[in-house]
C-alpha cells in the first residue's frame, strides 16, 4: 500500500506503508541512533511527533516488549528508509509493522530519509501529515493546518500518570513527578532500592510534602516546558526543602522555576551519541538525547543557577546546578534507553546529595514535621 508524507513547506514524499492505515499530523523530527527504535517509539517525550530514523535499516531485530519505555507508544508516525519485516532476534515477539498497526500509528518506508533530514536541518522542524489515503495534496494540507496548536500542546497531560502509585523499596523515598516519564528513570531508582512514589504532572507542592519524600525526581516529558507553568511553580516552592534532580523536561522546568528562560532549537538533539562536556572536570561524556527545547544561556545571568555541562556540538546548555540549594539537572538522558549508560552515575550523585542533605538537616523537613504533628502543633 502507498503512503505519503506531506510537509508544511509543501514537500511531498511518496513511499510504502508499513504501519496503520489512516493519517496523522505531527511535528517531523529525526533521530540519529543506529539502534534503539523500540525505545524511541515508546519514549513519551515523542508524543505527537512523526519520527524519522536516519539509520537506513530499521526493523531487523523486531519488537520485544521488555524494551519499551512506556506502556503504549504516543508517537504519531514513523519514517524509515528501508523497513525489515522479518526480525532476526530470539527476543523478538513480533515485527515493527505489527506494533505500529496495533497502536494506530502510520509508518512509511522506501523514501529518501537523507533528503528529509537535510530539509529539517536547513529549515528547522515543521509540521507534517503522514497518510495512507488517496486524499489530494490540498485536502491533506488543509487537514494538517487544521490540527490546532492546542492539540499539539497538551502532550504532558496525555502522557503523565493520572494516579499516584508506588514502586516500593527500602531506601530513600523519591517522589518521581511524571511528565511522561520513561521507564528507564524508574528502573534506575529501583536498582538503587529507592522507595519511589510516582505522581501526576499537576501534583501540588503540598501534596508532595504530604508524601514526606527524601528527594524529588523530575522526569522527561513531551512538548514545550512553558505549557506546564504550574509544574515550574511547584518546583520553585519546594526548592531548598528537598533535594531535586531534573531530567530533560524536568531540567527545563527546573530552569524556569529558578527564573531562567527556555527556547526552541532549530531541529533539536535526538540520538545516542551527543558529546557533552562536564565543565568542572573537563571530561566529555557520550549521551542519549531527545529534546527540541533548550535553556537560554543569557537568561542564566541574575539567577542562582550555574551551568555545569555544555553540548560539544552546538555549545548549548546540558546541565545546571543551584548555587545555594541541593538541586541539579541535565538536558540529556542518564537512564539511557536507548544509548550509552555512561551517565547513570548521576543517579548515584542524586542519592549522595539526599544523604548529605539529611546529614546536614537531621530534623528537617520530614522528622520536624512529624514531631510537630505528634505534639499537636500542626
Ligand atoms: N525528553 C524530554 O524530556 C524532552 C523535553 C522537551 N519536550 C523538549 O523537546 O525539549
From TrEMBL:
InterPro entries: Anth_synth/Amidotransfase, CarbamoylP_synth_ssu, CarbamoylP_synth_ssu_N, CarbP_synth_ssu_N_sf, Class_I_gatase-like, CPSase_GATase1, GATASE
Catalytic activity: hydrogencarbonate + L-glutamine + 2 ATP + H2O = carbamoyl phosphate + L-glutamate + 2 ADP + phosphate + 2 H(+); L-glutamine + H2O = L-glutamate + NH4(+)
Region ranges (Disordered): 358-378
Gene3D superfamilies with a match to the protein in the record: 3.40.50.880, Carbamoyl-phosphate synthase small subunit, N-terminal domain
One Gene Ontology biological process: L-arginine biosynthetic process
EC number(s) on file: 6.3.5.5
Domain Carbamoyl-phosphate synthase small subunit N-terminal stretches: 1-131
Protein family according to the UniProt entry: Belongs to the CarA family.
Official protein name in the record: Carbamoyl phosphate synthase small chain
Annotated source species: Paenibacillus mellifer
Amino acid at each position: 500500500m502507498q503512503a505519503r508524507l506531506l510537509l508544511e513547506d509543501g514537500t511531498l514524499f511518496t513511499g510504502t506503508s508499513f504501519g496503520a492505515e489512516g493519517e496523522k499530523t505531527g511535528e517531523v523530527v529525526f533521530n540519529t541512533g543506529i539502534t534503539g527504535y523500540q525505545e524511541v517509539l515508546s519514549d513519551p517525550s515523542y508524543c505527537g511527533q512523526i519520527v524519522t530514523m536516519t539509520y537506513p535499516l530499521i526493523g531487523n531485530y523486531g519488537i520485544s516488549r521488555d524494551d519499551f519505555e512506556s506502556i503504549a507508544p504516543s508517537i504519531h508516525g514513523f519514517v524509515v528508509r528501508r523497513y525489515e519485516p522479518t526480525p532476526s532476534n530470539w527476543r523478538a515477539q513480533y515485527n515493527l509493522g505489527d506494533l505500529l498497526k496495533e497502536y494506530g500509528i502510520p509508518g512509511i518506508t522506501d523514501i529518501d530519509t537523507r533528503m528529509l533530514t537535510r530539509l529539517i536541518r536547513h529549515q528547522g522542524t515543521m509540521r507534517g501529515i503522514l497518510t495512507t489515503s488517496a486524499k489530494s495534496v490540498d485536502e491533506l494540507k488543509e487537514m494538517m493546518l487544521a490540527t490546532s496548536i492546542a492539540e499539539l500542546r497538551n502532550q504532558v497531560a496525555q502522557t503523565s500518570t493520572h494516579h499516584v502509585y508506588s514502586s516500593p523499596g527500602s531506601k530513600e523515598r523519591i517522589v518521581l513527578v511524571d511528565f511522561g516519564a520513561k521507564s528507564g528513570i524508574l528502573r534506575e531508582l529501583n536498582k538503587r532500592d529507592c522507595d519511589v512514589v510516582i505522581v501526576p504532572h499537576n501534583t501540588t507542592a503540598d501534596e508532595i510534602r504530604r508524601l514526606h519524600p527524601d528527594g524529588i525526581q523530575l522526569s522527561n516529558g513531551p512538548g514545550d516546558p512553558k505549557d506546564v507553568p504550574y509544574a515550574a511553580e511547584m518546583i520553585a516552592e519546594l526548592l531548598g526543602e528537598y533535594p531535586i534532580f531534573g531530567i530533560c523536561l524536568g531540567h527545563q522546568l527546573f530552569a524556569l522555576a529558578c527564573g531562567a528562560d527556555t527556547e526552541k532549537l532549530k531541529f533539536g538533539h535526538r540520538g545516542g551519541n551527543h558529546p557533552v562536556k562536564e565543565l568542572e572536570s573537563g571530561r566529555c561524556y557520550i549521551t542519549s538525547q531527545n529534546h527540541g527545547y533548550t535553556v537560554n544561556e543569557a537568561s542564566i545571568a541574575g539567577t542562582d543557577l550555574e551551568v555545569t555541562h555544555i553540548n560539544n556540538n552546538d555549545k548549548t546548555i546540558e546541565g545546571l546546578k543551584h548555587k545555594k540549594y541541593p538541586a541539579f539537572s541535565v538536558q540529556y538522558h542518564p537512564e539511557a534507553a536507548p544509548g550509552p549508560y555512561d551517565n547513570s552515575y548521576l543517579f548515584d550523585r542524586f542519592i549522595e546529595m539526599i544523604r548529605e542533605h539529611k546529614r546536614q538537616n537531621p530534623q528537617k523537613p520530614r522528622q520536624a514535621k512529624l514531631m510537630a504533628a505528634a505534639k499537636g502543633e500542626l
